[in-house]
Amino acid sequence: MSKVGSVGTEFHIKLRERNINNKGVLMKHNNDFRFDLDYGKEGEGMLHKMLTGEEGYRVEVKRDRQAHRTNNLYFEYESRNKPSGIANTEADYYCYFITDTFCFIMKVDVLKAKLRRLIKEKKVINDKQPGGDNNTSLGVLISINNFMKE
Fold first, then answer.
1. How many beta carbons lie within 10 A of that of residue 14, not counting itself?
2. pLDDT tens digits for the chain (150 residues)?
């Protein structure tokens, strides 16, 4: 009996590792409440580490005053002819507040790759959009819908 339990536990651990590592295995449904609870608690731990800076996680936070009205996101990469924003962040994660009560958090390297791909596929509104104080910055402007669905 314990041998079967061990195999089951190993299987669940492997599924969880694949899911966390984003290797394409997505858990659609699981009737094992303990597994779901453990997985959820692990996520809580990950968020706690991001928010407290434990284990060296660094989070860059952007708060956008207009995104909820314009339905667009703006990712600055240059200011006054120097790299800035997403181009030179040292953060591990990027948190973007669309409103005061809604945000998304992404790993910076994943976000940069996504923006490059969307620019290449011409799914952005403008990849050289002036912005910031006195329009001295450049950034990528993309609709929230395109960003979220891609």
1. 11
2. 333 333 333 333 443 444 443 434 454 555 666 667 888 888 888 888 877 877 778 889 999 999 999 999 999 999 999 999 999 999 999 999 999 999 999 999 999 999 999 999 999 999 999 998 899 999 999 999 999 986
